[in-house]
User: What shape does this take?
Amino acid sequence: MSDKNQLTISVPEAGRRYFNLSRGGSYEAAKRGEIPTIRIGRLIRVPVRALERMLDKAVERSRGIGGSCLMAQTHGPSRPTAPKPTLQTQRRPGRPRKAERDNTHSASA
Assistant: This one.
């Protein structure tokens, strides 16, 4: 099947072809939902028509708003994001860990 007739393409190919992204960048964009994907078992594919429709809508929006930045329209103003909490910060308050309890008792003795 030729490239023009393919209904789906791989995530890295879609990222490279449409956005000039690296392989890792392509998968990250797909994970964030910025590249539409379908999953068949372990296989992740990008439906070409859905991706091109998404791009057409983005172009229409950018023309309607006066040509402002596409990224600002779809994702809001750029601002730094807080780091995701680590496992330690996700612990529920309550009884301290065993190592913390042992240190507390030896310090008070």
